[in-house]
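Annotated sample (chain length 273).
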Amino acid sequence: MTVLIASDLDRTLIYSSAALGLTMPDPEAPRLLCVEIHEGKPLSFMTETAAALLAELAGRDDVVFVPTTTRTRKQYQRIRFPGPPAPYAICANGGQLLVDGVSDRDWRRTVAGRLARECAPLEEVHDRLVGTADPAWLRKARVAEDLFVYLVVERALVPDEWLKALTEWAEARGWTVSLQGRKIYAVPRPLTKSAAMREVARRTGATHTLAAGDSLLDADLLLAADRAWRPGHGELADAGWRAPGVTALTAAGVLAGEEIVRAFGRASAEAGR
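Output written by the structure step:
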């Protein structure tokens, strides 16, 4: 039996300094391993224990570890997990499937065809977001992989009415809107992590799937897996989101990441029995 593990990255497996959530006295804090450098500075971390467990898990012959992220390919490739390189990675919320680090052209064509048939054009959505955003709280606007749009904002200043109106407008055009930290994402509805996970499962012959994630953009991934976990922080936790087969952890911050890796190890061992 082959077990596929598709896990979200930011605030699920890896954590920035601001997201570590270390509330214990400093002498009791876990040792951390830096797994991402950006512009010469450490950016993302795991506990050393989580890193060691993940390396052991990814090295097993009966496990396929698939990093699964909304990050672009360039952003993902900054991450250096311990253990063997992941043979597959899902980037751009499912819009890019990397095979041995290279974008899979067949998958990209499949995604492009669905978006053209089912969604309003990227340019229309981009213009709506940027044209209606207030410069008082808009910091940046970005297009990711020519697939979706996100804004970097001062979250406390974004009016709820604006976000609600944008969500309704986008839904009528086949797009979804998600607020994650300081970023507002507008993503085509067919662009999902779950679709890419199913494709990797098909190619690898995986018979059991495990997943983890913290945000609304991860919900479809968690629902599609045989078993899944969400940490005690993030959009899903804040919304009290629960579903059959999804374990809601109480741990938050980087220690939740460690608990998720432990859960992957236990569940993959059980699946192989």
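Annotation: The mean pLDDT is 96.
Annotation: The chain has nine helices and 14 strands.
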